[in-house]
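Annotated sample (chain length 683).
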Amino acid sequence: MKLNRTLLACTLALAALNPALAQTTEGHPDWPGAGQLFAGTCYQPVDRSLEQVRRDVALMKQSGFKVVRMGDLSWDYFEPAEGKFEFKHFDAVMNEMQAAGIRVILDIPGLPAPMWLHQKYPGVDIVNQAGTRLAPAERYMDNIGDPDYRRLAVRMADTLTKRYAKHPALLAVGYDNEIGNGFMSYSEADRKRFVQWLKKRYGSVEALNKAWATQRWSRRVGNWDEVRLPYADGPGPAERYLDLRRFWSDLTIATLDDLEAVRRRNTPGKPVLSNYWDWSGRKGFDFLGSYRRHTTFGAMGFYAGDAVGGGWEATLIKGGMTTPTWFNEFAAGGGGSYGSRGWSRMWAHFVLLMGGQAALAWTFNSHLGGEEQALMGLIDHDDRPSWKLGEWARIAADYAKLEKRGFPRSVEPKVAIAYSFENTAAYSANGPSNTSRQYLKTPYLKQALGAFEPLLKDNVDVAVIKLSYEDLSRYRLIIVPGLYLLDEASTEALRRFVADGGTAIMTAQSAKVNDNNQWHATPLPGGLTDVFGLRTNEFYDAAGTFKIGDEEVKGTIEHFEVLEPSTAEVLSHFSDLDGRPPALTVNRFGKGRAYYLATPAQPQIMRPLLRQLYASVGIEPGPKTPDGVFARAVSGRVLYVNTNNAPVDIAIDGAMQGVLGGQHWDKTLSLEARGVELLEQRN
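Output written by the structure step:
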């Protein structure tokens, strides 16, 4: 223990000097690290009697659960009136968990704020863009930029973490369930905070006018008092909309910084396991550009509808972290939690392929009232165990078998997909509803998934990263799929990556606007024409046919860019478009290669291109699997997950033993619908 404490002190000291080390978790005495998997549940004891709690905990223990997540969404349970804290009931719950050997993720309940806080401090109320003050009618209708909110949220966090810092059941701390969701606010106080943010960013009204292109259409700002909050729900110039999203992102990160300071002070030996929602359409925030400041494990709520979408979100929340990922909300029985047998078990193994370490069912008890009455949990409304509890007990048993066999798996991807929170905002203003052009009808996420899908189906590990925030030397191939806004720092990072020997693929609609969301006045792609050995300005609404190697491909998105190569070699031409313009080029730059694809990224186009590049960039695809089946090799074994709603036969090498099912397989593995299996060599 003395060694652990010394290591912890060194880790925290280094982290204070270098935020990039903040995610290091080996210094935590209770780090849930290598060789451990966790199955558990989210638990909200706010309306459970102590007798009911004891029955619940007994069922959790019987099911093999190792961990629960508690505290979220419960501010007024702990603080029913300002400054009046009540912990007697939760003390008893924590003690019951400890007696059962179940560890606790304590989620700081900064959202939603209690009604008493809204009543006394109306600045916490949301004001909509029409100027109407809104009552907190649903979760997350709290203005997190309000000083009273921030002050009282910090006090709540400080009081709670001090109370349970030394409790033996405490495993980790989380912040503000689903932070990133919520609402922007338009009060006069918000406007003034926005102005202060702009002053810090731009320094002068003259610089602001340039950044916002106010010379266009009589929108010049004469002084700071003339600045208004841009509308999130249009209309509004693109530059201002982007800054609005940046402003609220920075406020969210500042809230996380507040809470992280409390954790470092009160529970420095406990890692952070927050349930982030950085891609929420309401606000979102720049998680991939800030996570080293406030987290040690990527963590999220997992409600997959399909493998590509679920895999993307699981990869997005991991970023460039080397620590395993926690899925600390997990739909208990299906996409809507109404009942799909085998659904949870299938996805609980799928996330292990992505580097996951834990799956926690949402939720243990079905809610009798509130906003999720029909989102059924592991215990039915009449307090009887559902069939779902049995399925989660099976997940716990599976995890117990797997954790000694190379899990959680270490994920060290050599392929990265470039992502930026700012880019998702850059696409939104003045379109696509306000334009008929296809150019703005293919937003970044659609292209990102088009690049991600073939990699996922080839069972290749991928990182989703912000280019300017990571050490790009870890990767051999970086894909820039329709990154409309490629900021200056990311542009330079990509340039260095290629010059140093990396391979990059850029697709149509990339690098068109600068940091202020204004089109580059220089040849496109902005700042990278020499790297890609071409320029592109024109684009047309048409989908053409071309070849990648010997395979003929055609997109279904009617858009292509006219490429004007200089030093780039044309690898393929459109065969059915006037003039047979270039479809794919490659340029040697420094020690590396830069490919430019004249079409948006789509799976049927990216798949043959990637497969052609794997060998040359030193990337080996994973096990070959039928469509809808995913697999990874782990410590000489292979984990297979069938996401199909029908049985599938999979070709395997020789005779193998099933770890989970106990069956012997020779040359063919037969998986039932939503079936999973870990194969190893027979003894």
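Annotation: Residues 1-31 form one domain.
Annotation: The chain has 17 helices and 25 strands.
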